[in-house]
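Case study: ABC transporter permease.
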Amino acid sequence: MRYIQLYFHLISINLRSQMQYRVSFVFSLLVVFLTYSVEFITIMFALDKFGGIRGWSLYQVAFMYGIVTVAYALARIMFCGFQRFPNMVKWGMVDRFLIRPIDERFQLVAYELPLNRLGQVILGIIVLIFAIIHLDIKPGLSNILFLVVTILSGTLLYGALFIISAAIAFWAVESRELMGIMTHGTLRMISYPISIYRPILRNIVIFIIPVAFINYFPCLHFFSYDPLGFPVFFRYLGPVVSVMVFYLSLLFWDFGLKRYQSTGN
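Here is what the predicted structure looks like once written out:
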């Protein structure tokens, strides 16, 4: 409870700090929104020209894109400190987190809150609503709850991937490229149906970095089209997989922290 209160207190401080420069904040948010809007529009133009992609319609792809965009953007906001961690190790800043009487992981979560990423969240929600309208998905309570749980599961899973890739910096300081592959790379992959990829790539996002469980499989709950023929229960494993991976990420972090060698400064 103490950490929850402290977290929201820090959010309030961060928000007030960013609101000191409102024009700059709004401009930054708008830039993020427009950047990802251009990306989405480009994808939609291509899909519209070719009439979809391997049996998947433009609106089905938009639905997947919207879900993973919101989940990823929320993870970028909440776990941004872990993205900065490799540089902290490189610059000898980690010790200051370790000597404070607060869990270092919480400090990293609260270290930075890039609220301009709300522009990406807003875009994802708009795309999701756009897709839902055209797919004629009924906005019933069960469907809304399923979508919310799926998005939160995706946020937790991507948070776990940020933690894992940050923990690698305990051994290899220059781990940002690996972080990019695990997070932004998989984001780009599951923005499309995984059935369009070769089996080896599908197996990576199902069994190794299991991001398919927070986008592709849950989306099948709303579609009757499933070219891969996976068991139906795969569609509902997202929360379980996310919690498991997040728990493993914390264990991996603790394992790496025990092997951390202070810079002594």
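For the exam, be able to explain this: Residues 2-257 form one domain.
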